[in-house]
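Feature request, filed as a ticket because there's no other form

It would be nice if the structure record came with a short human-readable summary line next to the tokens. Right now we just get the raw output. Example of a typical job, pasted below so the devs can see what we mean:
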Amino acid sequence: MEQIHINFAKFDSLIQIADYFHSEDVCKQAIAQERWGDGEAVCPYCGSTHTYMTAEGRYICNDCNTHFSVTVGTIFENTKVSLRKWFLAMYLVSSHKKGVSSCQLARDIKVTQKTAWFMLHKIRGLYGQSDATVLDGEVEMDEMYLGGRETNKHENKRTEGTQGRDKIKTR
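Raw output as currently delivered:
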């Protein structure tokens, strides 16, 4: 799935982003600009640049003769939610330091909680997390609790004499 990186940092408020992305066509133009720049549209099926736009705003590839839209291969593909609501949701997620819940997003953009959860799942998937960073040397951390209560563990997983404490030696 292709990632679209629309810069929401240039917007100062929700009102400003709602005014800027005032129609579906403006949203589609923003996606097209982000995907292909000022160049030709690239067919997501064969990679050809021999494409043209129809009067309805869809594209047709001259090489493989397939019809596609600007949203094919993105998180917006086959969605019934308007692109305006998607862009508002992306702004809300990216502008809140602690994120936003699906219930709050549902109220903010007037969709069901289930739809908001689905949208959040897709949007959070765009934020890649690399677990490849390996810590080495001396690593310090504040309070930490490893394991769990011995009484909650399966009998063969319990460690005798720990009483909820791990046997890892600390300073």
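Something like this underneath would help us a lot:
The chain has a mean pLDDT of 84.
Helices lie at 14-20, 24-36, 83-95, 102-109, 113-126.
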